[in-house]
Amino acid sequence: MELLQLQYFRTVAKYEHMTKAAEELRIAQPALSKTISRLEEDVGVPLFDRQNRQIRLNRFGKAFLQQVETALGALDEGRRELTDMLEAEQGTIRLATSTLNRLSSSISAFRKENPEILFRVVQIPPASSSDMISLLERGDVDLCFIAAPLNQPWIREQIVLKATVNLAVPITHRLAARDSISLAETENEAFIEYHAEHPFRHINDRYCEAAGISRNVICEVDEPSALWSLVQAGLGIAFVPHNTNEDPNVKLLSIESPACEREFSIAWNEKRYLPRAAKQYMAFLGTYFQAESSGG
Length: 296
What we know:
Elements (H helix, E strand, L loop, with lengths): L2 H13 L2 H8 L3 H15 L4 E4 L2 E4 L1 H28 L5 E6 L2 H14 L4 E6 L5 H10 L4 E4 L8 E16 L9 E3 L7 E5 L4 H13 L4 E6 L2 H9 L5 E4 L8 E8 L3 E9 L6 H18 L3
Helix pairs in contact: 1-2, 1-3, 1-4
């Protein structure tokens, strides 16, 4: 069994189509078919079901693919570790997040101090924690910046930012004359909220449980910009981070009780090699957000 056979097998399994796989691999389709046939002879079972010109990964192929992914992933990590040790290439940080706006300024500040380090950022939908887990499990990213725990035993998480949460009300709202409020006072107010699977929705629900109230949610959204626009339009009130930009159409109220804040963490797969550049950025984030919160 050869490494090239495994790499070719992974590509064919991805497309379940010999011609497409051959095009990606830039080899002749007959040569690819012959390589896969030799691999099947080596392992002693067919890895694909073939019918006319169609191929489908069978149960043997699916089981074998899991082990191939693990083996090739380990080899890739080994190469990266050696490259990192020898300083043979620029550092690259592969990062996934659903809240890039929280990280943008830190990436800029880090790059000013470390211009040789590059970032590859993957933006994930807010409710797709499973995507984050998959990216870390496969080793496709080094770090994830998260607003809610991923709850996997092999994922380490380190809190790097705690952000105060305010209540945003339309400037025409009766509460706009206030500077602060107890959340219990909003019992009958109309709320704009994130949809049910959004991590911030779960966090906001916990605030209201602590205050002993049930909200009147009249509209659900996916994005912070949509939530803010509806508050601007006077449709209702909403939980927003403290550092939201000033807006003449919206008043931010401090929440006296219960304490409302969001915790943002960096997550990584403790079973995989973590490049030096990623470790350097993690250390930087802790001091960066601390200085930012203190006004430094």
